[in-house]
Amino acid sequence: MQAFLAITIGCLYAGAFYLMLRRSIVKLLLGLGLLGHAANLLIFATSGLVRFAPIMTEPGAATPPRVADPVPQALILTAIVISFGVLAFSVVLIKLTAAAARTDDVDSLRTSEM
Amino acid sequence: MIREMLLVLPVLVPLAAAILSVPGSLVLQRRAAMVGLTGHLVASMLLLAVAARGEVFAVQLAAWPAPFGITFVADTFSGLLLASMSLITWLVLLHSTASIPERLQRLTFFPLAMVLLAGVSGALLTGDLFNLYVWFEVLLMASFILLTLGAERPQLEGGLKYVALNLIASAFFLTGVGLLYGSTGTLNLADLSRRTSELPLSFPRIAAVLFLLLSFGIKAAVFPLFGWLPASYHTPPAAIAALFSALLTKVGVYSMIRVGTLLLPQPPEALTNALLGVAGLTMVTGVLGAVAQTEMKRLLSFHIVSQIGYLVLGFALYSVAGLTGAIYFFVHVSVAKAVLFLVAGELERQYRTTDLTELGGSYRTSPTLAAACFVGAMGLAGLPPLSGFFAKLQLVVATLEREAFFSLVAALLVSMLTLFSMCKIWAEAFWKAPTSARVAAEDWPPAMRFATVGLALLTLLLGTFAEPLMTLAQQAAEQLLDRQAYLQAVLGGP
Questions:
Q1: A-chain residues within 8 Å CB-CB of B158?
Q2: Could you tell me if residue B389 is inside a domain?
Q3: Residue of chain A with shortest Cα separation from B211
């Protein structure tokens, strides 16, 4: 499970950077989304990959020997909400930019640097 | 109790002012912003007054004990930055009431500026790494909208680069947080500092610190990650650029210094050498970019990059002298750069352009503006008795102490080139014979005049009465390197 997750996270990072290095403005956005997922999954992996063991048990019952750390899950929840909001803003920004510049080629967006 | 309140008020007051005034009219939003800012200024001045006595104080939010809940901490460093940023924001927003077109002000400009200030205050005061990420996102979100306010084409294109690179920086930040939590099991900065000094150095922790430094490096715009800054900062109105230059990149460097000093008590030689190299290259490439520019706001944007190099230099030296210089430099450069951006704002109002080749003769038509520009420009270049001189002197002394001669040469050379490009602004915009008629003939609005002259006077004061600020900066630097007071305030115990 751990190896599988590690490879998945690695693929997500690689895919994100591949997409962001493309010239299309839409692929840039998709890359940013993937990058956020990769970071979130990495944090998730730090909670310990334990199945079926909640940290809260019924009163009197013995605590399971290994439980997943709930803190990273709370962190990811926060990060997901934030990146959702930021991504929504980016979609609008990219739509407006593409409409103003009449192109989806990132390399030709140079008006502000002339 | 009062001290605990002081720690949360700088976040709560502007946030409340923003939220409560959003549905209201523009007049209400403007008033709420001025009230919120004044509250923020009073709170942060009081905070600085307590911190200046050498105390580090903390509050555990919702009374969760230290490593588990969110802690807010203030020491001299954060108090000093908070107070100076608060004062600059107050004056810049006063300027913006007259300088930003009403059409743009209506797009919730004032509430957004308040949210930005709340985010910056949170980032300066928090003692928790994940909470720092959250405050970064708060201030970034506000800055995204402020930067693209009005949605002109250059703004959108510059804004796209700014947004994309900052989102990448945030993802790197999260990666660093994940690796750090996985290898230490805590995100409280003081707790991290204590544990990292006990645990042996491991690969995930080195990777985590590098990811964090990379993320702060993008946000602070250091070489070679500064591409987004000169592409975007000159596109919004001058007052917004002044606000950004005083708050945004500075928070990046602040986080770098705060996290760096806490997590790396004895940094490896290779890392400090690399940072010294980065600092030198940031200074040189920034100033070379500035020398080539003829558009005033773009020129100033490149100078922001160059000045960031000096701040990173002070951090990379990792000594009391170096950090003292960096902290003094923080205050000096925020003020001097704000003066110059506000001068650019007035020139923009008069001529509808800030291209230096089209300006000229303002020395005769606006002598007060010329004087303010002269003080700001020479202050930034570092001519005595203005503030930049003492900041650079302290940094030069620190580089000599460490025998970092390449950095010394870079710092002095960059000073020369800064002086050159400041002279270019002065000569082109003010001294040269007029090249085109002014568009706006009416007088300088009082709000803009007060803000610009006020900040110019502040530059003068910081230079002529440098001693108290330098003492405070030294106290802040000693606290940063000693760490004990910080750990004790957050975690309690010995």
A1: 112-113
A2: yes
A3: A39
Query: What is the rounded distance in angstroms from the CA atom of residue B350 to the CA atom of residue B28?
Result: 28
Structural domain containing residue A27: 2-50+68-107
Using CB atoms within 10 Å of the CB of residue A104, give its burial: 0 to 12 exposed, 13 to 18 middle, 19+ buried. Answer: middle
Q: Which of A38, A42, A97 comes nearest B156 by C-beta? A: A97
Interchain CB distance below 8 Å, A45 and B178 = yes
Number of domains in chain A: 1
What are the chain A neighbours of B177 within 8 Å (beta carbons)?
A: 43, 75
List B126's β-bridge partners, or say none: B72
Total of domains in chain B: 1
Q: For residue B294, what is the nearest residue in chain A, using CA coordinates?
A: A114
**Residue of chain B nearest A75, judged by CA positions:** B130
Decide if A16 is inside a domain: yes
Closest Cβ–Cβ partner in B134, B140, B148 for A93: B148
Q: What are the tens digits of pLDDT across the range A14-64?
A: 999 999 999 888 999 999 999 999 999 999 988 877 776 666 667 777 766
- Is position B369 within any domain? yes
Q: Give a yes or no: residue A56 inside a domain.
A: no
Whether A24 has its CB under 8 Å from any CB of chain B: the answer is no
Residue B494 has pLDDT above 60, yes or no: no
A38 and chain B in contact, CB less than 8 A: yes
Q: Which domain holds residue B368?
A: 282-478
Question: What CATH number corresponds to the domain at position A88?
Answer: 1.10.287
Residue A89 lies in a domain: yes
- Judged by a CB distance cut-off of 8 A, whether residue A26 touches chain B is no
Is A67 in the B-facing interface, judged by CB distances under 8 Å?
A: no
Question: Is B134 within a domain?
Answer: no
Regarding an ipTM greater than 0.90, the answer is yes
Q: Please answer whether residues B409 and B400 qualify as being in contact, where contact means their C-beta atoms are separated by less than 8 angstroms.
A: no
Terminus-to-terminus CA distance in chain B, angstroms?
Answer: 23
Cβ neighbours of B293 (radius 10 Å): 20
Task: Specify if B34 maps to a domain.
Answer: no
Q: How many whole angstroms separate alpha carbon B213 and alpha carbon B443?
A: 47
Q: How confident is the model at residue B199 (pLDDT cuts 50, 70, 90)?
A: confident
- Does a structural domain hold residue A58? no
Q: How many CA atoms lie within 13 A of B335 on its CB side?
A: 28
Q: Is B52 on the interface with A (CB under 8 A)?
A: no
Is A82 part of the contact surface with chain B (CB cutoff 8 Å)?
yes
**What is the number of residues in chain B?**
494
Chains A & B: contacts with CB separation below 8 Å: 106
B252: alpha, beta or left? (left if phi > 0; alpha if psi -120 to 50)? alpha
**What's the pLDDT tens digit per position in A52-92?**
666 666 777 776 677 778 888 889 999 999 999 999 999 99
For B145, B397, B408, the CA distances from B319, given in Å and listed in that order, are 38, 11, 15
pTM for the model:
0.93
